[in-house]
Amino acid sequence: MKPILAPSLLAADFSCLDRQVEIVEKAGAQWLHLDIMDFHFVPNLTFGAGIVSSLRSCSDMVFDAHLMVEDPFKFIESFKKAGADYFTFHIEAAENPDQIIRDIKSAGMRCGISIKPSTDISVLLPYLADLDLVLVMSVEPGFGGQSFMPDMLEKSSWLAAEKVKNGYSYIIEMDGGINRENAKKALASGVEALVAGSAVFGAEDIAKEVRYYLDLTIDR
Ligand code: DX5
Ligand code: ZN
Q1: On the chain, which terminus has fewer CB atoms closer than 10 Å, C or N?
Q2: Residue 175, Cα to own-chain centre: how many angstroms?
Q3: What pTM did the predictor assign?
Q4: Residue 207, Cβ neighbours under 10 Å: how many?
Q5: Cα 165 to ligand 1 centroid, rounded to whole Å
């Protein structure tokens, strides 16, 4: 089995986003990771549905939106219209996760939940059967370029075990500090989709870096 690579646009050169996306897409990356921050849930601000919509017209990649926002409800409709394929919200931001899951799905998007490093993974138990994606944060959300937290591999292992035991269908994604040193360990723990921001867009040869991760295998 081959991993999914989701280069994170947060680390791209914002003066030429279309060309940066073209490079990773031509190199074979299947997903584009879109970090949406609202300056409330995290102390940083990025971009919104307008940019996502513009990029939609120049890319066929799967758009993997990661909403680090205080009120995910408010973003569902605009992200659907903008062409997001996956809509992932934070469990820490959700008062009524079941309702958000239903709304995302009825809008026609795939639904993911993300979890911060300090949140216990077992809080996701009631929702696992309904999810298309679980996004394990391996850094504190808010900024690219931070160091990978190896303890988070326990969460991906746990998710992989639950998935097999119960026949769940969610994809296990890991986000934060992923690079050549830890990508294999992440895949060995059960991760199927790797988010990589600085490792990919900060590389001298971006396309070569994309191919490195795509050439890794998942042995299971
Ligand atoms: C952090 C974001 C990540 C970030 C990853 O809050 O969710 O997606 O862009 O960047 P790197 O790979 O540089 O840690
Ligand atoms: Zn992210």
Answers
A1: N
A2: 6
A3: 0.98
A4: 15
A5: 30
